[in-house]
Amino acid sequence: MVVSMEVKNKIIIYGAIVAIILIIIIYSVVLVYQDHQDKKYLVMEKKVCEAALNCYNHHECPTTEIKLQELYDLNYLDQVVNPQNKEYLNPDTLIIINPEDNTASLEIG
Q: CA geometry: angle at 108 spanning 105 and 109, to 5°?
């Protein structure tokens, strides 16, 4: 069976178009997935920092360095799971409170 040059060229062009479309789709899916993972981590971090700020502002946590275990003991948080590796956060993880601007940062080590 002899395939003309014109048919071969059409096959190559259509194949290239399909390949380009697949590359764009795969790249987009990877970007959306990574963005979703980043947002899940940010939500977890904000949840912990908000609980630490509440504890500090209610004067139940006297220092500006609060361990996660203190928040567990005072019922400000349940066990917190890192959404990236699906493991519980270390209870010795520190949350640093900045009383000047009433913010907190999570120090995972």
A: 140
